[in-house]
Design brief:
Blueprint (H helix, E strand, L loop, with lengths): L1 H7 L7 E5 L7 H16 L3 E5 L18 H14 L5 H4 L5
Helix pairs in contact: 1-2
Length: 97
């Protein structure tokens, strides 16, 4: 669906897409398709402004945080969840410094 929508938009270097949580309510496969469609649109010259709570999904984007240090807190919490079962936590976690 997302790829069809993005491929049907005529993208020029002056195109600006404003999206409000486009990944909300989507399963992981659709989110990956959405991300690919957005990257393709950007490669065709679109500027994409996207509101999202999923900062890890958009890690390579220019992120403007409205809640100071939100990205750092999310990374630390995700690391704690992923690394909790491992004894050598430092070897598995992402540094936020």
């Amino acid at each position: 669906m997302a790829q069809a929508v993005f491929s049907s938009i005529q993208i020029t270097p002056n195109t600006c897409l404003l999206l409000d949580e486009p990944e909300s309510g989507q399963d992981f496969d659709h989110v990956l398709k959405l991300k690919k469609a957005m990257l393709d649109a950007a490669a065709r010259g679109a500027q994409i402004i996207c509101a999202s709570h999923h900062v890890l999904f958009w890690q390579h984007a220019h992120i403007i945080e409205l809640d100071r240090n939100y990205k750092t807190r999310v990374i630390q919490k995700m690391c704690a969840i992923v690394c909790a079962p491992h004894q050598e936590k430092e070897n598995f976690c992402i540094s936020t410094k």
